[in-house]
Design goal:
By secondary structure, this protein is an alpha/beta fold. 35% of the residues lie in helices and 24% in strands. The protein has helices at 15-25, 44-51, 66-79, 96-101, 122-129, 164-187, and strands at residues 5-10, 32-38, 56-58, 84-87, 106-110, 133-140, 150-157, 191-194, 197-200. It has a 7-stranded mixed beta sheet with strand order 3-2-1-4-5-6-7, with helices on both faces. The chain has a two-stranded antiparallel ribbon with strand order 8-9. Helix 1 (15-25) crosses helix 6. The chain is globular and about 50 Å long.
Length: 202
């Protein structure tokens, strides 16, 4: 039986992309990384993907409307047979067209326990709010920023001595663990979405 094909979108270093690819190579995730797409030609993650034998595509956004850009990405994803899109540090909001074209088939990872601290600098937001626990979330993407049915979350304790950098590093370690877990969960034939909740039925 053919494996589900993933399309991974990145804008930067691609550390979560690497975690996904490594999970596939280690046999922890039964899927295929079909293509890595970036909107930034200089994204360091592109070279990491190529080093791992993954096809890469650059589709620049500059000077283009969001939906026009998204349509080209969608076309590329479909040409590689992608069934699940994984945002891994992709720093662009998706258009409604994109979200509906892959409804409940787009995953994103965010460094907080959503719905707390959406948007940029989530780790700084957590420190400034004085919370004792934060973490990371993998969720299905809808039309709102850092919003949609939650698939997997992992808590991370905030230490008294934490800086943005130290907290970010510990959260990132957990991100690398839960993203492959979340993909595996979504690819399960028993996975279902009901409203804002997700389930894997027995």
């Amino acid at each position: 039986m053919s494996k589900s094909k993933l399309g991974i979108l990145i804008s930067g270093r691609g550390s979560n992309m690497v975690a996904i690819i490594d999970a596939i190579r280690d046999g922890r995730l039964d899927a295929e990384a079909a293509v890595v797409i970036s909107n930034i030609e200089s994204a360091p993650g592109l070279e990491k993907a190529r080093d791992r034998g993954i096809t890469t595509v650059v589709i620049p956004r500059k000077g283009r409307q969001r939906e026009e850009h998204d349509r080209e990405i969608i076309s590329a994803l479909k040409s590689y047979g992608v069934s699940l899109v994984c945002l891994a540090g992709y720093m662009r909001l998706l258009s409604s067209f994109f979200v509906h074209e892959f409804e409940n088939q787009i995953l994103n990872i965010h460094p907080s326990l959503l719905p707390a601290f959406p948007g940029v600098d989530a780790q700084r937001q957590a420190l400034e709010a004085g919370v004792k626990v934060t973490g990371c979330t993998v969720h299905l993407v809808d039309e709102q920023l850092d919003h949609g049915p939650i698939v997997v979350q992992r808590a991370v304790e905030v230490l008294d001595a934490d800086t943005v950098e130290s907290l970010s590093a510990r959260i990132l370690e957990q991100e690398h663990q839960i993203y492959p877990e979340a993909i595996d969960r979504v690819l399960s034939k028993r996975f279902r979405v009901e409203g804002c909740r997700t389930f894997v039925t027995d």
